[in-house]
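Case study B.
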Amino acid sequence: MTVKIAKSWHFNKRPKNMIESDTFVLKELPIPPLKDGEFLFKTIYLSLDATNRVWLSDWDIYMEPVHIGDPMRGFVFGQIIESRNPNFPVGRYAAGLHTWSDHIITNGDSFDLFPVLDGLDLAETFAILSVAGPTAHVGLHEIGGLKENETVVVSGAAGAVGTIVGQIAKIRGCRVIGIAGSDEKCAMIVNEFGYDAAINYKTEDVTEALGKLCPDGIDLCFENVGGDILDASLTHMKDFGRVVICGLISSYNSSEPVPGPYMFRNLIMRRLTVRGFVILDHADIMPDVLKELASWVANGKLKMPTHIVDGLEAAPNALNLLYTGGNTGKLLVKI
Amino acid sequence: MTVKIAKSWHFNKRPKNMIESDTFVLKELPIPPLKDGEFLFKTIYLSLDATNRVWLSDWDIYMEPVHIGDPMRGFVFGQIIESRNPNFPVGRYAAGLHTWSDHIITNGDSFDLFPVLDGLDLAETFAILSVAGPTAHVGLHEIGGLKENETVVVSGAAGAVGTIVGQIAKIRGCRVIGIAGSDEKCAMIVNEFGYDAAINYKTEDVTEALGKLCPDGIDLCFENVGGDILDASLTHMKDFGRVVICGLISSYNSSEPVPGPYMFRNLIMRRLTVRGFVILDHADIMPDVLKELASWVANGKLKMPTHIVDGLEAAPNALNLLYTGGNTGKLLVKI
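Model:
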């Protein structure tokens, strides 16, 4: 074994709000020899996702949380550098749900081999196909029941999931309005990702702006943020509209109870269907979803901006970017 | 024409919270002669429903609101006493959505003839078949997708809709827990309407009590109340559970914005589907719904307590009973 030591971040102390300097500690541990069925994985990119913060909370969440003392969990992309598992041969790329580590020994349970797509760099392929693309696809179709020619509103529109949601909704012939946190982000999603219009929630009254942009109401709201932003969309939903709750990032850093939307009564007034979802539940349809996403990537219909931070050491601070609007597109750590 | 004058309540001033003495004014107006296609309807019972208060708000609601100066809208049951409409012959009973009036002239647009069921008094028939029964049936089946052997939690369980929801869920073989506002109501829904257990929200910690009564979680929450009560149920929903938002009565009297549920995040954590509905949208399936409800009534599987207030004059004050928990079962005004 050429690599002797693996570095990984461990959960040290529950943060009250943002990630703090003592939330994680970096540990160096010796790498044991491979057993039959295992392989050694060298991490190339670590994906940072809004839901990472949820795993650190003391809420009753959708899966086992990360406990104090555990290595921090994350989606990783990398290369197999030693292997005693014939399904994961040396040299192939793979992606999986594992830990914030530069080297991983695993039997491959939560890993899949990863395609190399012509003309696309590995970061962008991973950014689209690992979490954000499937989340956008399943959220729009399986959960939201997207139909042609609908009016779709997306919050967190310049984020990883948001940029893909907009592009898929355009592929489906919809009118798409994005909500984002700066003029630069708004310009980007309109000029580069095909959004029909964008609202800067930091400088505009979102409720008023949505009223003007969606005079006939919203068919489908794809919600990544929650709070005031969700209230603005709820105000303008069409009768029998659908609201897909993908994320509620505005509340993930709060140690106080956060009220739900003040326009909750519109579930009745507009007869809405509001559904939350988690992409990990939809493994059964993932082959078809990935096939369609890859075809769109191949013919240039789907692209993804990446925001890449350097070095495993930078991961904890970088996670905070998701909650301050500091990233545009998919946030990755290059190991 | 034997009756010369009709009395009816008109909306006079928007209430801030509860209905006040000047919210409505009683007017006496001469009854014009019948035209071809019209009939004269003598109101016997006026139904008071939680949603009546919504019609008086300045919210953007699910139908045309009642405007200041308009006669107050309501569901009515009565008898045809003169007719120039062959579909509504003299002597027959009918029910419809019209006004808080003792006599009504109409072409029958929003009226249907009403069955007389053997062994059941007219008040109970009207109470079950006019609004509460269809609301409970459609909410459980069409909106909530009720399945056998599920755990169902019902708030406002001793109200008109709640008593029917519990009985239908029992007919479907479910376990049903009700939340109500007094020990008497709790005893009634368990002893008379088949609820498996009841929680008095005024004396018990509802979240804690639901945790004990539903250790494996709630499949379907039928919500009539909102606020803290809904939060308690959201806390204990099963993964992929469904929440039917039938009413949010705890917020209808508020002139201040009311926050949505604090456990809104559980839409994601438990991957919930939350749907609001209004019974008026479901006219297409009403014949089948009414047929099934009537068959249950006929074979004694479905009954309804009625709380009857005397005289059209009493209607405005009686409406407040719905928001103070002053009624048990269906609140009717006998004209």
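Chain A has a mean pLDDT of 95. The remaining cases will be described in the next quarterly update.
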